Automatic annotation (TrEMBL):
Organism: Actinopolymorpha pittospori
Keywords of the record: Carbohydrate metabolism, Hydrolase
GO annotation, cellular component aspect: cytoplasm
Full protein name: Glucosamine-6-phosphate deaminase
Entry keyword annotation includes Membrane: no
Enzyme Commission number(s) from the entry: 3.5.99.6
Example of a GO MF term: identical protein binding
GO biological process: carbohydrate metabolic process; glucosamine catabolic process; N-acetylglucosamine catabolic process; N-acetylneuraminate catabolic process
InterPro entries the UniProt entry points to: Glc/Gal-6P_isomerase, Glucosamine6P_isomerase, NagB/RpiA_transferase-like
Gene3D superfamilies referenced in this protein's UniProt entry, alphabetically: 3.40.50.1360
Tagged with keyword Hydrolase: yes
Chain ranges of the Glucosamine/galactosamine-6-phosphate isomerase domain: 11-233
Amino acid sequence: MTDPIVRVFADRASMGHAAAADIAAELRERLSYQLAVRMVFAAAPSQREALDALVAEAGIDWNRVTAFHMDDYLGLPEGAPQRFGQWLREVVFDRLPFKDVHLMRTDGDPELRAAEYTALLAEEPIDVVVLGIGVNGHIAFNDPPVADFADPKAVKVVELDETCRQQQVDDGCFPTLADVPPTALTLTVPRLLDAGRLFCVVPGRAKATAVRRTLRERIGEACPATALRTHQACTLYLDQDSASELA
């Protein structure tokens, strides 16, 4: 077990640029000896600075990169701005010439959609994951009540806990708690940790307690992000606000 590298920056902008530079360097290196790279993206306002900076990075052959995302709500109509696939299209997927973008379908039978996405993910190894941490310590939509560090599934249907749903309101994604869908599809904790390299971008004072718990509390499902400490190659990118409880 290797604890994550923790990098702290003065503000969100410098944090985002540093994360993007490291992600870009990893992609360039892998593309120098691999035919293709497969990566998974988180969708959240916390990721915006890093993704904007990543789009501006030069020297990456995006035509050899296949993109996935790690979770999405069930029950939202096609094209709804709150859908994570839609958000990622606007922020990164439609701004770069990816080889393929596999959007998570949420129509029809959720279990069938989970199985379909599981099959897509399993076609080749996942090289890179760009993720965040929720205020309740979730990674993807693995909230404490549903997180399972030994989950046999790669993608599953989950019930979102109230803290997670309230975060979506506080982030400005939904007007009220009642508007936030109660269920979602998510990559599981083992599926996320099966990637070669993790870049975890976590700005903001609202995340300070979750960051402290991630790095200081016992590893376990009560704070799902503690699982990051079991990964061999994970870096956390923080700003002064999110790092404020580490002193």
